[in-house]
C-alpha cells in the first residue's frame, strides 16, 4: 500500500513540476530552460509570504501572480524575438535562469530558507499512516490536470491555443492574435512553474539552486509527452513508478537517474514519445 | 559558478600593527567563501579575525603582529589548489590554519608538503588524514558517533538502527564507523541507504525506514539542502523514532523550526557551554561584530582556538621555523571556549563532546557531556 501511494504521489509531484513546462512547449514549441528558476521564484514567494506572517496558503495565488508577471516581462523582452530560433531560445532561457538564480542569491543569500509546512502530519488511509502533504499533492495534481483540460477545451483562449498548436499560419489568417496567445501561454506556464515551486517548498529545501535539480526530470518528461497533458500524466505515472521501484528494490542512487534514462530510451525507440500524433 | 580564486587581504587591527616594528607573521586561511561551505565560512573568518585582534592587542607573537591572508577555495579541490598555491608560494604565509571540505584539504596537502609550512585543519572530518605537517583540532567519527549511539542504546532502548546518508566521503565515512560501533555495542543495523548529494527525493528510503522495524535513525548527509529535505520528509511522513543527525549544527536546527524538534546532535562546541572562557569569547564576538555576527559554531570555534595553539607553538619554539613549530605543536595547549585543547594524539586532539537535543523553540539543550573523548588511532605512523 505504501508503495502504491509512493508511486502515485511521486507521479503527482512530477506532474505538478512539469505542467508549466509542458504548457509552454505545447503551444510555443520552445523549451523554457528558465523553468527551474521559476520554480525557485515560487518557493521564495512562499518564504516571503511566511516572512510577512501571512497564511502560508496565500503563497499559492501570490506565486502564480508573481510568476506570471515576471514571465510576461521575460516573454516580451527575451523570448518573443526567438520563437523562430528554438535553439537560441534554449540558450537564452538557460542564461536567464542563471541570472535569476544569482539575483535570488544577492537578495536572499545562499543559505537554505525555511517555509512552514502547509499540511503537517500524517493521514490514515487504508490502515497506513501516510504523509498528509503527499496525499494533498495527488489532489493538487489531479486538480491541475482537470483545470488545464477545462482551460483548453472550454475557453476561448484554449480554442485559440489549440488552433495555434495545429496550424499557426492558418490561425493567424483566421484573425487570431497569435502574439497575444503566446504571451498568455507563456505567462500561464511560468505562473504554473512558480505555483509548483510553492507546492515543492514543504518537501525540499529552498535555496537559490533548488530548481535546477527538478529541471532535467521535467524536461525529459515533457519531451516524452509532446504537447498532450494526458500523455504527460501517463508518462509521470510510468516513470514515477519506475523511479520508486528502482529506489525501493535496487538503490536510491540509481533511482535518481531512472526518469532521465528511461525517457532517453523511450525517445530512442519512439521519437514521438507518448504523443498520439 | 565563479571558480576564480579571489584573494582578499585583510589588514588586521590597524592600531596594533602600527606599534610593531617587526615583520608580521602571516596566517593563510583558505576557506569556502563560495560553494557548499559558503554558509559557514563567514563565521570562520570572523572567529579568526577576533583571535588575531586579541593576540595583536596583547603584543602579538614574539613581538611580531599576526596578519590574516584569506583566500576563497570555492569549497572544492580545484579552488583549493589555486588558493594554497597562492598562499604558500606568492604570499609566503608562515602557516595555514583553516576549516575546509575534505576535498579541499586533500588537494591542499601536496602543496603544504612541497612548500613545507605547518597546516592546522579546523573542520571536523571523516578521519585518518595523515601528513607530517598536518594537525587537526576538530572531531573525527571516533569522537562524535559514540555519544549518540550510547545514548540511543542505553537511554532510549534502541536495538535496531537505520542509517541514512549522502553519497560522499564524509557521509559514507561517518556511517561506516557508526555501523561498526553499533554492531560492536550489540545492536543491529536494519538498513543503510544513500542518496546522491544533489538528491532531494527520500520517498523510497523513508518507506523502507517505516517497514524495517527500526527503532532509531542515524543520518549523515551533506550539510544544508539534503539535510533539510530529509528532515522535512521524515517528519511529514510521521517518523518519530529517536533521530540522531550527525550533520546538523545549532544554527541549522534553529532555522528548521518545528521539523528539527527532538533531533539529537553531537558536537564539541555548543553556544550554551557554561565556562568563563566561552562567555568571554561570546561577548567579545558580540562586541566586535555586533549586528554582523554569525553565530559561533563547531566549525568556527576550532578556528579561533587553532590560532592560539599556533601562537603557543611559535612561542615554545622561539621561532616560526616550520620544523621547530611542528615539533612544538603536540606539546602545547590552549584553554578556549571548548575547554583545554591539545593536539597530542597522533596530531589529533582529545575533545569534550556534548550530546544535545533540539527543543521546541529550536534551541539546543545539552543532554549529556563526555569529557576528553579520545580520537583513537588516527595516524599511528606519525
Would you mind describing this structure in some detail?
The complex is a heterodimer of chains A (277) and B (382). Chain A has helices at 2-28, 35-51, 59-79, 86-108, 132-154, 156-166, 168-173, 178-200, 210-225, 229-249, 252-269, and strands spanning 122-125, 128-131. With 277 residues, chain A is an all-alpha fold. Chain A has a single domain (2-109, 129-269), classed as ABC transporter involved in vitamin B12 uptake, BtuC (Orthogonal Bundle). Chain A has a two-stranded antiparallel ribbon with strand order 1-2. In chain A, strand 1 (122-125) and strand 2 (128-131) form a beta hairpin. In chain A, helix 2 crosses helix 9 and helix 9 crosses helix 10 (229-249). The longest helix of chain A is centred in the N-terminal third of the chain and has 27 residues, at 2-28. The mean pLDDT of chain A is 87. Chain B is an alpha/beta fold and 382 residues long. Chain B has two domains: 7-139 and 273-349, Rossmann fold; 141-267 and 354-373, Response regulator (Rossmann fold), CATH 3.40.50. In chain B, 39% of the residues lie in helices and 20% in strands. Chain B has twelve helices and 15 strands. Chain B has helices spanning 14-18, 41-57, 77-90, 102-115, 141-154, 169-184, 203-212, 225-236, 250-256, 276-289, 300-317, 322-328, and strands spanning 7-9, 25-31, 66-72, 95-98, 119-121, 134-136, 160-166, 188-195, 216-220, 243-245, 264-267, 334-336, 339-341, 351-358, 364-373. In chain B, the strands form four sheets. Chain B has a six-stranded mixed sheet, with helices on both faces. A four-stranded parallel sheet of chain B has the order 8-7-9-10, sandwiched between helices. In chain B, helix 3 (77-90) runs parallel beside helix 4 (102-115), helix 5 packs across helix 6 and helix 11 (300-317) packs across helix 12. Chain B is globular.
Amino acid at each position: 500500500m505504501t508503495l502504491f501511494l509512493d508511486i502515485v504521489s511521486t507521479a503527482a509531484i512530477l506532474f505538478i513540476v512539469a505542467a508549466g513546462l509542458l504548457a509552454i512547449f505545447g503551444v510555443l514549441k520552445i523549451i523554457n530552460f528558465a523553468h527551474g528558476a521559476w520554480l525557485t521564484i515560487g518557493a521564495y514567494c512562499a518564504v516571503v509570504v511566511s516572512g510577512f506572517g501571512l497564511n502560508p496558503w496565500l503563497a499559492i495565488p501570490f506565486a502564480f501572480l508573481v510568476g506570471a508577471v515576471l514571465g510576461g516581462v521575460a516573454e516580451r523582452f527575451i523570448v518573443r524575438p526567438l520563437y523562430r530560433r528554438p535553439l537560441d531560445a534554449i540558450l537564452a532561457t538557460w542564461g536567464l535562469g542563471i541570472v535569476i538564480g544569482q539575483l535570488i542569491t544577492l537578495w536572499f543569500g545562499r543559505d537554505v530558507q525555511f517555509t512552514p509546512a502547509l499540511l503537517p502530519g500524517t493521514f490514515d488511509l487504508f490502515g497506513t499512516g501516510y504523509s498528509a502533504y503527499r496525499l494533498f499533492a495527488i489532489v493538487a495534481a489531479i486538480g491541475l490536470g482537470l483545470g488545464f483540460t477545462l482551460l483548453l477545451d472550454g475557453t476561448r483562449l484554449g480554442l485559440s491555443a489549440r488552433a495555434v498548436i495545429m496550424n499557426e499560419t492558418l490561425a493567424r489568417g483566421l484573425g487570431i492574435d497569435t502574439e497575444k496567445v503566446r504571451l498568455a501561454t507563456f505567462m500561464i506556464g511560468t505562473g504554473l512553474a512558480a505555483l509548483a515551486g510553492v507546492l515543492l517548498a514543504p518537501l525540499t529545501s529552498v535555496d537559490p539552486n533548488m530548481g535546477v535539480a527538478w529541471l532535467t526530470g521535467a524536461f525529459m518528461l515533457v519531451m516524452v509527452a509532446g504537447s498532450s497533458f494526458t500523455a504527460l500524466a501517463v508518462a509521470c505515472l510510468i516513470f514515477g513508478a519506475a523511479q520508486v521501484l528502482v529506489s525501493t528494490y535496487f538503490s536510491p542512487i540509481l533511482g535518481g537517474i531512472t526518469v532521465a534514462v528511461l525517457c532517453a530510451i523511450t525517445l530512442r525507440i519512439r521519437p514521438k514519445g507518448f504523443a498520439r500524433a | 559558478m565563479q571558480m576564480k580564486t579571489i584573494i582578499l587581504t585583510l589588514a588586521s587591527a590597524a592600531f596594533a600593527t602600527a606599534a610593531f616594528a617587526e615583520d608580521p607573521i602571516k596566517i593563510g586561511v583558505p576557506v569556502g567563501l563560495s560553494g557548499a561551505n559558503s554558509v559557514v565560512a563567514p563565521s570562520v573568518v570572523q572567529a579568526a579575525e577576533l583571535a588575531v585582534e586579541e593576540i595583536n592587542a596583547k603584543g602579538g607573537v614574539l613581538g611580531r603582529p599576526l596578519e590574516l591572508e584569506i583566500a576563497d577555495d570555492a569549497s572544492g579541490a580545484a579552488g583549493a589548489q589555486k588558493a594554497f598555491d597562492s598562499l604558500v608560494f606568492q604570499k609566503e604565509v608562515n602557516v595555514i590554519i583553516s576549516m575546509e571540505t575534505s576535498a579541499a584539504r586533500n588537494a591542499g596537502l601536496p602543496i603544504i608538503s612541497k612548500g613545507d609550512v605547518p597546516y592546522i585543519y579546523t573542520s571536523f572530518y571523516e578521519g585518518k588524514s595523515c601528513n607530517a605537517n598536518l594537525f587537526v583540532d576538530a572531531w573525527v567519527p571516533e569522537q562524535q558517533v559514540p555519544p549518540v549511539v550510547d545514548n540511543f542504546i542505553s537511554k532510549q532502548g534502541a536495538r535496531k538502527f537505520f542509517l541514512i546518508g549522502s553519497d560522499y566521503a564524509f557521509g559514507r565515512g561517518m556511517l561506516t564507523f557508526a555501523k561498526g560501533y553499533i554492531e560492536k555495542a550489540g545492536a543491529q543495523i536494519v538498513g543503510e541507504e544513500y542518496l546522491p548529494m544533489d538528491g532531494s527525493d527520500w520517498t523510497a528510503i523513508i518507506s523502507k525506514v517505516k517497514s524495517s522495524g527500526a527503532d532509531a535513525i542515524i543520518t549523515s548527509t551533506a550539510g544544508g539542502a539534503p539535510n533539510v529535505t530529509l528532515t522535512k520528509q521524515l517528519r511529514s511522513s510521521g517518523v518519530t523514532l529517536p533521530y540522531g543527525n550527525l550533520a546538523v549544527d545549532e544554527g541549522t536546527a534553529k532555522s528548521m523550526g518545528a521539523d528539527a524538534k527532538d533531533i539529537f546532535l553531537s558536537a564539541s562546541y555548543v553556544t550554551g557551554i557554561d565556562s568563563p572562557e566561552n562567555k568571554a569569547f561570546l561577548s567579545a564576538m558580540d562586541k566586535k561584530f555586533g549586528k554582523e555576527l554569525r553565530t559561533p559554531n563547531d566549525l568556527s570555534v576550532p578556528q579561533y582556538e587553532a590560532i592560539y595553539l599556533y601562537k603557543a607553538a611559535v612561542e615554545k619554539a622561539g621561532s616560526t621555523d616550520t620544523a621547530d613549530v611542528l615539533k612544538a605543536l603536540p606539546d602545547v595547549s590552549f584553554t578556549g571556549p571548548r575547554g583545554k585543547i591539545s593536539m597530542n594524539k597522533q596530531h589529533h586532539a582529545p575533545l569534550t563532546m556534548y550530546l544535545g537535543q533540539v527543543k521546541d523553540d529550536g534551541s539546543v539543550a545539552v543532554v549529556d557531556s563526555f569529557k576528553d573523548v579520545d580520537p583513537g588511532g588516527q595516524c599511528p605512523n606519525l
